[in-house]
Amino acid sequence: MSLNIAYKYKVQVPEVSQRKLEGLKVKRRYPGKIPLVIGRVKNSNLSELAKCKFLFPATATVGDLCHYINSKLHRTEEAPMYIYANSELVVSKGSVIAEVYQEYREDDFFLYLGYYEENVYADIGRES
């Protein structure tokens, strides 16, 4: 059972080799930043972000990322949100983005993360 997260970037650039070239270029050009691709978990009540690719400071935390996403979605800072890496792991808000990147980045040098609002009673987009 895994989360169903649609990553627009993988649809826009289906060739892994092309994404890998872009990921390498970004890592070389911005060494203190982490290239992220962020997608919304299917069946989430949250809106989709206008952009799907981001450069985020390596020293920032997942909590900082949640704050950023909430601001882009015009939600209050206190609005609960889950962040997933590899479509299954719920990432701790205290985790440093650089550490999450080292552990979960894909071969194309991007870190793919999904977001979902906290809702105890809702189906979170899992497929059986």
From TrEMBL:
Entries under InterPro entries matching the protein: Atg8-like, Ubiquitin-like_domsf
Superkingdom of this protein's organism: Eukaryota
Coiled coil: none
Cellular localization per UniProt: Membrane
UniProt keyword terms in alphabetical order: Autophagy, Lipoprotein, Membrane, Receptor
GO cellular component, one term: membrane
Stored Pfam families: ATG8
GO biological process: autophagy
Keyword check for Transcription regulation: no
UniProt family annotation: Belongs to the ATG8 family.
Protein name: Gamma-aminobutyric acid receptor-associated protein
